Amino acid sequence: MTNVFAYQNGSLAVEQVSLERIAAEVGTPCYVYSTERLRQNYADFIGGFQGMNAAVYYAIKANPNLAVTRALVDCGAGVDITSVGEMERALRAGVSPTKILYSGVGKRRDEIEAALNAGIRQINVESLPELHLIEQVTAELGKRAPVTLRINPNVAARTYKQNSTGELGTKFGIDLAQLDGVMEIVAKLSHIDFKGFQVHIGSHVFDFEPFREAFQKLADLTRFWRTKGFAIDRLDLGGGITIPYDSQTLAPFSDYVAIVRETVGDLGCELAFEPGRRLVGDAGILLSRVTFDKQGLSKRFLILDAGMNDLIRPAMYGARHTILPVKENHAADAPLADVVGPVCETSDLFGEDYRLPGVGQGDLVAILQAGAYGSAMSSNYNGRALIPEVMVSGGQFAIVRRRITVAEQLGWEAFPPWFEDKKPVEAHSCRAATG
Ligand code: LLP
Known about the structure:
Structural class: alpha/beta
Distance between the termini: 38 Å
Helix content: 25-40%
Low-confidence stretches: none
CATH topology of the largest domain: TIM Barrel
Shape: globular
Largest sheet: 9 strands, mixed
Radius of gyration: 23 Å
Bound molecules: ligand LLP
Strand content: 15-25%
């Protein structure tokens, strides 16, 4: 795979565009995405399943940016959504409703209705009450609902506790021991088109063996329920495969493919995958500038203009992303520093003891592996703007989401009418880079 984030003429570039240029023209912090890497990642994923009846549904929650989604949809991806808001985005990005899967434990009636009206491909059902609601809504609409049942296989994904979704006691999926009862009901409901099973054991899964365990259980269930007369022609294997963060090494993707072949490959089912991170994670970076180089008594801090509100993964999961100086410098003896943001929380820490040669006050850094669950999880905490997102393709770049300024955010709010005598002070226009 071509390295789309490489130093060119002493400066880190995305494809053929230098990050210094993007920083100068767009301002920092901002997210920068490589179109080529998105395409490579898609080709790599689907290419692994050549000769099999497999389709990729991009888990749009990883990065809902319209241009990012469109780039993958143009490659042939469908989309896995988790709300009707995501459905609107997916449709706007150009995906056909017949290539949309709908996951999630808490689909509301209005969301189910909207999804059915749009004619999406499949609803992944996670509970009995959800199944009954879908039956009811579908009957009212005079339609039929294509449904898979999400199984909780009770498999530990060995990832962050917050990202493990296939263990007993998590809110996800139907517990195996309760499946008999649910299948009995499925057989009786007249508006449900039962297609098969789904499983998603978690995210940031770096050891593939838990996938084997889960897919094997799905295969066993498929065989069993076929003997009971159920036609099962779809298996949805979810997402969850991680990418290397920091200097982590991972088993090759071909190992995952082999597990899929060995467990569910001979069932004659159409296979669906819902990767998020694997498609977009390493296609994006967070570009930031050092506001201060602060030498404390016991520690040195590089205080960035990006904070935990822009990229919450380190604070939330203890995730460690690679950080590189934008100006090329391979000196081995740089002093260590904790890389932090400006937000008023000690957890606003990108990581401890980074060695960033040549980086001091005013310099640019790139936080890698930020394409998934970066911008998607950002907030305006601490009175901060939502930062721009930039897409690069070859030698060109474009702002694909502009900065949502604080001045603009102030317009979202209102005083209650009983405050009417206290008129708001005129908002000052803020400095472009921060406002
Ligand atoms: N399918 C379902 C039903 C999911 O819930 C998810 C992710 C995916 C697919 C895609 O998983 P992926 O291939 O991206 O691992 N914020 C966390 C990750 C949360 C994942 C939520 N569900 C993080 O930053 O690590």
